[in-house]
Structure prediction request, 439 residues.
Amino acid sequence: MATKLARICLARPFLRTLSTAPPSHLTLLGQQYPTDSITNISPTIISKLPLRLHTQPFHPLNTLRTLIESHFPDYAHLSSFSPLVTPYKNFDELSFPTDHPGRSVADSYYVNKDLMLRTHTSAHEIDVFRSGKTKWLLTADVYRRDEIDGSHYPVFHQMEGARIFSSDASGMKEVEEDNARLSQHLSQSNILIEDILHITPTNPAQPSHDPRHSELVAVNLKLSLNSLLLHLFAGVAGASKEEPLRVRWIEAYFPFTSPSYEVEVFFRGKWLEILGCGVVGQATLDRADVPHKMGWAFGLGLERISMILNSIPDIRLFWSTDPRFLSQFSNTDRKISTFKPYSKYPSCFKDVSFWLPLGEDNKKIHENDLCDLVRDVAGDLVEDVKMIDSFRHPKNNRTSLCYRINYRSMDKSLSNEETNALHSGVVSRLQDQFRVEIR
Ligand code: DAH
Prediction:
């Protein structure tokens, strides 16, 4: 994604060139599932399914989860939903259009055409609302095919949160009282929140909602999340009265909310998107059999927030089992500690140039296919992958691509032999899997 949460909304071309057939069945979390022509879940991804970092004691993502949960003590705290969902749950039930790019096999992991890895925690919204819960938080691992760099990883963690009220006068009175309470609580501090209008012609109330009710609910959403952001970020190192931490609200679009917003935090010279939210689409609540309710929901990216709060410089570190990483968080449940990098080991850049196959097979390799292949060979020893050259031969019309792969371990120096072995593994898989001609 431009940023993690928004990427799902970007259009991407998709062409697939896997020439090796997947096995007829995959074993996922102890159960067997048939594969089909769209299966694209890789061994590296399968190995992540049981890990559930957000529930591992003392892991920074677990600490962050419990910290946020402690801010919403009277909400239900859920964290054991399976990552395997139907495309219907992930997309259709939430009103995603049938041609939404997030559905493509280039962007999402499919076990088969009827089963996928959830791309966001919103996939469970309807089930949780249907179970009768009116205030809840749900944390889970989510999966998106993506490029490789220091802030993107194909598995990350989101927390979904929601609160719904009766849409009659008594429910709206509850919202008003809560708004008054929250406004009072939000006092001045070293955090600067840039706000926008709650409802505008481009970010409207839903037709079935009384606009005054929609406004009250949107204000409740913003106050509740600003209060969380203060709780999380007010003590962040570097933020001071002179240079406050900057947070901004911007208008957004999600198929299942209106009005919708995103929240970004200014960090190391860039605005980083950390959450998406909005007034829950009435269709969602109708499908969940709670048509007389209205309310708000949000989905936030735990890695993004933890990288800011704990000063974690590379997203791969969350998967590290190195005691030098884990021990830094070992006695700090519910308390954020600042990560002290133990060392930065040298990078080793290797380029690979190849001609795309001609004729029948002359399809463009999707960059996400290439990244999955590199991760399958090199795991977390690859830091980033960038295309550095692309050209079409004027005479024979063949396309040549050159990728630069940066191999770097977070735990040790890689020897030349190790890097060469990894790189030749990548090169031979490229030849086998994509039938490219190495230059
Ligand atoms: N699921 C969205 C994403 O991953 C984030 C989101 C947006 C969650 C709006 C919500 C919401 O609950 O109301 O991009």
The longest strand covers residues 155-166.
